[in-house]
Amino acid sequence: MKFVAFERALQGTGASRRLRITGKTPGIVYGGEGQPLLIELDHNALWYALKKEAFHATVLEMEYNGQVSPVLLRDVQYHPYKQQVLHIDFQRVDAKTKLTMKVPLHYSGEETSPAVKTENCMVNHIVTELQVSCLPSDLPEFIAVDLSGLKKGHSLHLNDVKLPKGVTALTRGKVNPVLVSVVAIAEEVPDPAAVAAAAAPAKGAKGGKAAPAAKTPAAKTPAAKK
């Protein structure tokens, strides 16, 4: 993806506040052999670019003073309640130096897997992005993961996924972490007593109400003998 950045002459809290009022977002580009570069971007264009997954996970092309440089998005600061980007950081990319980046996982096929289709199971996506190390030219926009072979009682681990060429996963000490788990859906067993009570209301009742008890006629008192 490509975006346009402009030179930012002033810095500081007051200057950044005035810049935001004019519809611009302050930013900085660092890393590599060059000095940190103060930039400003059009806020609306940046806001919509940030909604795209590729803007967060691929090498970007930054146009600045007529030249295009490869950079990575490293940090974004948002306003706590307004739809506003307060500041943004980019890092220069060296084509010969490996970089570390989080890449999203795109899962597919779980609806047709035996676990979901015939074995009454639910699939949980435990990991949605993977931190990887690779050269900039090998950085994938996303990693596709096919779940069509999932079965009951089995989970998908990192070693089950074929990573793109030149890409190494960084697991921070975890050995073959679980990416997707398969959980059986428990079937509720109805209470026999409750079923019997609902199916057999009191005899003679109308609308589920018990019929009133019949009155017994009072016994006649025998006449006194004269």
In short:
By secondary structure, the protein is an alpha+beta fold. 15% of the residues lie in helices and 35% in strands. The chain is built from five helices and 14 strands.
Description:
- By secondary structure, the chain is an alpha+beta fold.
- 15% of the residues lie in helices and 35% in strands.
- The protein has five helices and 14 strands.
- The strands form three sheets. Strands 1-5-6-7-3-4-2 form a seven-stranded mixed sheet. A four-stranded mixed sheet has the order 11-8-10-13. It has a three-stranded antiparallel sheet with strand order 9-14-12.
- β5 and β6 (67-78) form a beta hairpin.
- The protein is elongated.
